[in-house]
Amino acid sequence: MSHERISPSPLWQGSYYNEGIEAGFDKLKEECGVFGVYGHPEAAALSFFGLHALQHRGEESAGICTTDGSEFYYHRDMGLVKEVFDQDRIDSLKGSTAIGHVRYSTSGASRLQNAQPLVFKYRGGDLAIATNGNIVNAGEIREELEREGSIFQTTSDTEVVIHLIARSRQSSVEEAVEEALKRIVGGFAFLIMVNDKLFVARDAHGLRPLVMGRLGDAYVFASETCAFETVGAAYVRDIEPGELLAFDGGTMKESRFAVMERRALCAMEYIYFSRPDSDLDAVNLHTARKNMGRQLAMEAFIDADVVTGVPDSSISAAIGYAEQTGIPYELGLIKNRYTGRTFIQPSQELRERGVKMKLSAVRKVVEGKRVVMLDDSIVRGTTSLRIVNMLREAGAAEVHVRITSPPYMNPCFYGIDTPSREELIASSKSVEEIRKAIHADSLHFLSKAGLMEALGRPAGEYNGGMCTGCFDNDYPTRVDYGSASGCGC
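RESULT FIELD:
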């Protein structure tokens, strides 16, 4: 099949409820990344390369939808970007406007219907949407719409947005999109495409990242700036919180659907999710993470022989810690980059040892040494325990754990797949109790003040313009709408 045409099938998408953490591991997962193009003859190819750069934000599925101004062409499937698309498939996606998406896998959600962009038919024509984030009042709006006669086909919060657009009595699709955005609460980055228009929007607090670039006369959009480097685009600016951009007939219209009262970019983007070669609010992530490591060294120095980081997000911090202390940095842990996706269901015994499929200790580096191990967070504690034990099995004499975030105590409601509060080890255990649970010789978390210092942000001003709800329960929005934590994408 050279391309897929829109069919009047019902709206669908997977659950936005928390669907769990990958069996045997407890790292946080941000559910997706988005990439868009407006006004370039090779929109599909650019989207392919842009999504490849954002692959770390989603490894379950990938999809691209393009339009030539009158018809949609789209493809989405399970797997990595390079597995889902080949040259023939890219060539079949015609048009100069495109939106693309990569999605992370969660337990029970590895199904094709969860892949984006989602494509719909409604009375105004064809509509495609790619989303990063979560709408916390989706359940409340859904109940209201159902009472008024709407029939939902999914449990997706994205479907709520589509119903709001489709039911709008506004005279234009732009006004309908703006009206829908005013109703929803949460953290989100939207790329919404109709036959001849593209809409770009970011939530009122800027919780989820979204940036704009230029490539010749074309506009490009991405969850991270690293995608611009890949496609040769120049960074222009961040999409502002509460901003809506409308592209039609080669022109861009800038407007706002909400006034930003409190900027709150997700702190975990700095600590963990974004690639080290990306910039957030003009701050380079590699530099920021090195500063976190330096700050940890000042807050919690320990005499040791070797500093190492859990790849990949903690390598920069480990380098900073080593530079600050003068202790040599070494590759004490190696990530296996070729594990790929596995469909086997191993026994519990093998699952417990499964972390070694993804991570290995370098015996000749750590044997007989006092090791300082840096990591970005501790969620349930099971992965930290396995890594500490792995280092000990490789002969480490001591293992001192340093974490580049404050204790992760609360679930996220804005698009990060997290366990319930009861499953978060820091919600019920002291630092000393966590240290014992993970078999570390010492344990220290970066203080919130230290995090702000490392990022050059004023600690007293709304947490430095970041969302730190997972650390301190200070969420920038109401979260008691009855929606579970997780991601709507």
